[in-house]
Amino acid sequence: MSAPARTVRDEPITIAVLGGGTVGAEVVRQITAQQDDFASRVGAPLRIMGVAVRDANRARPGIDPELITTDTLGLAGSGADIVVELMGGIDTARECILAAMAAGSSVVTANKALLAADGASLYSAAEEHGVDLYFEASVAGAIPLLRPLRESLAGDRVLTVLGIVNGTTNFILSQMEERGADYADVLREAQELGYAEADPTADVEGHDAAAKAAILAELAFHTRVTADQVSCEGISHVTLADVEAARQMGFVIKLLAVAERNIDAEGNDRGVTVRVHPAMVPVDHPLASVRDAFNAVFIVAEAAGELMFYGRGAGGQPTASAVLGDVVAAARNRVSGGRGPGESIYAELPVLPLEQAMTRYYVNLDVADRPGVLATIAQAFSDHGVSIQVVRQDGHGDDAGLVLRTHQATDGALADTIDALRGLDAVKQVVGVMRVEGEAGS
């Protein structure tokens, strides 16, 4: 016996799209091409009432020219059931989203920069006006990540989030590792392939990942986190020597967004640390096999244990998929009269400085090749409360290469150790320093 067909009401859910670029055009195309399917999923037809663009004269295949307008703020405040913001940027996007909510519209956005800088004002306006705010596409493209984090794991206690959330940097590091290609050469290749912008700063210096880390941390730890609270370090200083040292020790290098609870000896929360930086990851860790422009987020929760989310983190179709998932959720709420989850910051944990994060280090030194040097260096680590886990030494002429890996310690203690090493006569040069993540017990 077949299930009864879902009742579909005649009155449509109206949608205004702000931004007619690659993602906006794909959202419009999908809604137009799959009208019957969306109506069945939602319980009402979806009708696009306008698409706001900067240049109305530019050809936009797949978008009815009659829907095009340059009055972005006017369309935002038109009272559509759902406003989809895909413009990017902060100030104008914030103005449009707040205008939409004031007019009674629920909002779907992919704007990670705005959410990480001022998500509080958006959540507050959504609560004030009784509307939804959805943003699945703001982190990791098509990967279903944020909804599981804030809904499926709502009954659990998240301990750690490790994420590869920037495809450009993962492509660069993957190519350096696989081909032995230099950073600058791979960056040029990434730009030619369209993975990297002409100005790649936001990607390669970690700013894009930092915005995403702030969003992930807020959802994971029920604590408000903004982008300026995220410690950020990019990949432009990563060398082939670092890549080779990682390989010899059984690691690969990834740019990671790391958000974790800082727990004291009694098991109480001291706060959270949120950081973005290159890190050595063991080759047997699930994140180590994430190659090229793919994204992945590894979560450790108290009851659920280890979880992995993997997929395409960018591109028109993957991002549109996440946007449309949010559109369906918001539209269903309109039909049913319900609302989606709001901001959850009840924990109010302090966001701790990087110095209090618990990390491990890889350290690559050029040292004088003479008796007693290793003991001197080991004493410098001991003086700062840092324990050495692994040492490898190679001689070359009057000097030697010394590679060390530490046990876990505070980032501040490790940084002080590096400063002390630089002041030793026996140390010719600190060649490389990198954090190690994903090891058992770390």
Largest sheet: 11 strands, mixed
The global form is elongated
- Terminus-to-terminus distance: 54 Å
The CATH H-level homologous superfamily of the largest domain: Dihydrodipicolinate Reductase, domain 2
Helix content: 25-40%
Number of helices: 14
Q: Indicate the low-confidence ranges by residue numbers.
A: none
Overall pLDDT level: 93
Structural class: alpha/beta
DSSP strand tally: 17
CATH topology of the largest domain: Dihydrodipicolinate Reductase, domain 2
Report what the structure shows:
- The chain has 442 residues and is of the alpha/beta class.
- The chain has 3 domains: 13-141 and 317-336, 3-Layer(aba) Sandwich (Rossmann fold); 146-310, Dihydrodipicolinate Reductase, domain 2; 355-436, 2-Layer Sandwich (Alpha-Beta Plaits), CATH 3.30.70.260.
- It contains 14 helices and 17 strands.
- It has helices at residues 22-33, 35-42, 72-76, 91-102, 112-129, 146-152, 167-179, 183-193, 201-204, 207-221, 240-248, 316-336, 373-383, 411-422; strands spanning 13-18, 46-52, 68-69, 82-85, 106-109, 133-134, 158-164, 231-232, 251-263, 269-282, 294-301, 305-312, 358-368, 388-396, 399-406, 409-410, 427-436.
- Strands 7, 8, 9, 10, 11, 12, 13, 14, 15, 16 and 17 form an 11-stranded mixed β-sheet that branches. A 6-stranded parallel β-sheet has the order 3-2-1-4-5-6, sandwiched between helices.
- Strand 9 and strand 10 form a beta hairpin.
